[in-house]
Design brief:
By secondary structure, the chain is of the alpha+beta class. Helices cover 26% and strands 31% of the residues. It has a single domain (12-171), classed as Peptide deformylase (Peptide Deformylase, Alpha-Beta Complex), CATH 3.90.45. Strands 1-2-3-6-7 form a 5-stranded antiparallel β-sheet. Strands 4-5-8 form a 3-stranded antiparallel β-sheet.
Length: 173
């Protein structure tokens, strides 16, 4: 296993637009994929949540994400080709600020093109929760955090306080 420390809010690597991967099958890219997979698995087992992770979250400024939800595996150089007009709201969370939840709007569906671990071009149509997850992770490789997508500054809350104030936040929409 190659579990890496997760970079936390304030680390400049999280605000960096990542460079494109030139050779998907290179040993360094394959190591990053392994690191992402193992780090995601470890985080999920310790914290009880987590469906995806992006390379900057382990300090690598390359356009690689790894998801394990409805689709499982790496997405190298992912690019959103199409977005639905329909939107939905949700409380978003992130490994890089695990105690915070942020109310965001995301597209209900997207189409993504990417390279798989072997460097083959793939297309993925995602709806609902997978669409939201991919938008979150692709934002990471563009240096964008869920905090930047908050509906308003009033829609950021401590995870521990959500149950106490959730009704209040719903009325603010």
């Amino acid at each position: 296993m190659s579990i890496q420390p997760i970079r936390l809010l304030g680390d400049p690597v999280l605000r960096t637009k990542c460079r494109s991967v030139k050779v998907a099958g290179s040993p360094t890219v394959q190591q990053t994929i392994e690191d992402l997979r193992d780090t995601l698995s470890d985080f999920r087992s310790r914290k009880g949540f987590g469906r995806g992770i992006a390379a900057p979250q382990i300090g690598v400024s390359e356009r690689i994400i790894f998801v394990d939800f409805e689709y499982s595996g790496p997405l190298i150089n992912p690019k959103i080709l199409a977005r639905s007009k329909g939107m939905f709201e949700l409380w978003d969370d992130c490994f890089s600020f695990p105690d915070l939840l942020v109310r965001v709007r995301r597209h209900t569906g997207i189409e993504v093109v990417f390279l798989d671990a072997e460097g083959k071009r793939q297309r993925l149509q995602a709806r609902g929760a997978l669409s939201e997850l991919l938008q979150h992770e692709i934002d990471h490789i563009d240096g964008i955090l869920a905090l930047d997508r908050a509906i308003s500054p009033r829609h950021i809350i401590l995870r521990s306080e959500l149950g106490r104030f959730e009704g209040l936040h719903r009325k603010e929409r």
